[in-house]
Design brief:
single chain; alpha/beta; 16 helices; 3 domains; Alpha-Beta Plaits; five-stranded parallel sheet; binds guanosine-5'-triphosphate; Rossmann fold; elongated; Four Helix Bundle (Hemerythrin (Met), subunit A)
């Protein structure tokens, strides 16, 4: 497809000459006789490149340049000026111009500069897409997902729509890897992503958030609709039999645990919603996996004059329970979701306290031990520490610690050494929070 070039110049004859030359070279051309007209065009339509005069009456070329570079999808700008003052060259390049060509221009040199700028733009776009795409499944990675979902949430705020966020985690995925190898696990992840794409709507934002964890952001939906979509996916997945190209006799069946939250709270941030949905997903895990757990966001309940949040769990179509009251969340132990922890020991608070004392004694040094293992490049110790900590964090309901440790554990398993340092920081903070929380509440029993 021919690239579109916008030429901005106050001199009519220059505009005509450039238009002629550029059309001759195969480009589509738009012209503007000043900054105001140019910005109007850029607001209306996409342009691949801008040729911009520097000295113009009314809005100067510098001013126009600053406005263009501030656009969300700014096209590359080549300055085209009669001035060969080196300060002009430096200033415009510093403000964001791609190149600087002096007038009178030599057509074939100008064409070469244009081709170069367009090539660079294409490469940059390819790199930006890679930065946002998961290389295995080709859906959004965490960066891409968060960027798009954040836009959905801002749009929802402006239009007072609800947004649903679902966090999905494949059940017992480690066992798939253990049985069928990492390549077998990869095939499962790809099939999982394909099914996500086919089950959710085109404008739902889908992403792979971590190893075997995925997220879906559903714009403008009611809880019932979002829950139905999650359930449709969960059921389709449970019925899907995945075969491996390298081992046609092997078949794999998997299930998924889903946490779903729907919010129309204008102050909800994506991070908060994802955290809430993640907590619900771990409830689905604790409650036996292969199910969706959802809870209406507080503000939505408030709008319905409902004091308590509703917890909805759904294992199959005739097991939809909309009346299970949620336990009020306790602040008893910092960094620990008391409800999850206590539920993991069938509600026995005394036993839960004993487990926390054991956790404190066994893991209070973990931060230093993990730091040491990273420092020594001792992968075996690191894997063993993170794997154990991840498991116990989940069972005491320390979900933040669990999530961060899980990320570090995955990186250790995949030997992503360069990620260790930055993944360790949140683990260290989360351990501190939990250890200090236990000390504060159970000090005399430790
Ligand atoms: N094949 C493959 N495995 C991955 C990838 N990323 C993470 N994993 C693996 O995913 C597994 C996740 O295991 P766990 O976090 O223990 O969870 P699980 O076995 O799914 O158990 P539950 O979540 O509790 O049901 C680990 O073995 C990781 O090595 C990947 O890109 N490819």
């Amino acid at each position: 497809m021919n690239s579109t070039i916008l030429v901005i110049d106050d001199a009519k004859d220059t505009l005509m000459l450039l238009e002629f030359d550029l059309i001759e070279a195969g480009y589509k051309v738009l012209t503007a006789n000043g900054g105001e007209q140019a910005l109007e065009i850029l607001n209306r339509q996409a342009v691949d490149l801008v040729l911009l005069d520097l000295h113009m009456p009314k809005m100067s070329g510098m001013e126009v340049l600053a406005n263009i570079t501030a656009l969300e999808t700014a096209p590359p700008v080549i300055m085209l000026s009669a001035s060969d003052d080196e300060n002009d060259v430096v200033k415009t390049l510093d403000v964001g111009a791609e190149d600087y060509v002096t007038k009178p221009y030599v057509a074939k040199v100008l064409y070469a500069r244009i081709r170069n700028a367009l090539r660079l733009k294409e490469k940059t776009q390819e790199l930006e897409a890679l930065l946002r795409t998961d290389s295995l499944t080709h859906i959004n990675n965490r960066v891409g997902y968060e960027e798009l979902a954040t836009k959905v949430i801002s749009h929802a705020k402006r239009n007072k729509h609800r947004t649903a966020i679902a966090m999905l985690d494949i059940d017992h995925f480690k066992a798939v890897n253990d049985t069928h190898g990492h390549d077998g696990g990869d095939v499962v992840l790809v099939e999982f992503a394909k099914l996500l794409i086919s089950c959710f709507r085109d404008y739902d934002v889908i992403g792979r958030i971590g190893g075997e964890e995925f997220a879906v952001c559903m714009p403008n939906v009611r809880l019932e609709t979002a829950l139905a979509a999650c359930e449709r996916f969960r059921e389709s997945l449970a019925q899907l039999t995945i075969s491996l190209p390298d081992d046609p006799d092997a078949t794999i069946n998997i299930t998924v645990s889903i946490g779903l939250i729907v919010s129309n709270d204008p102050d909800s941030m994506l991070d908060d919603l994802m955290r809430e949905a993640d907590k619900l997903m771990y409830r689905a895990k604790s409650a036996g996996r292969n199910q969706t757990v959802t809870e209406k966001n507080k503000s939505e309940n408030a709008a319905n004059n409902n004091k308590d949040n509703e917890l909805v769990t759904s294992k199959d179509n005739n097991n939809l329970n909309t009346n299970t009251p949620k336990q009020p969340e306790s602040e008893k132990y910092a960094g620990i979701d008391f409800d999850i922890g206590v539920n993991n020991v069938l509600g026995d608070e005394g036993l839960f306290e004993e487990i926390l004392v054991m956790f404190y004694q066994d893991h209070k040094q973990d931060k230093d031990k993990i730091a040491q293992a990273i420092n020594d490049n001792d992968l075996l110790t690191l894997k063993s520490l993170t794997h154990t900590l991840k498991g116990v964090a989940c069972s005491i309901g320390a979900m933040e610690l669990f999530n961060h440790t899980k990320a570090l554990d995955n990186a250790a398993n995949d030997q992503k050494l360069q990620e260790f340092d930055y993944l360790f920081k949140p683990v260290a903070l989360a351990i501190n929070k939990v250890i200090n929380g236990i000390e504060t509440t159970l000090g005399d029993k430790l």
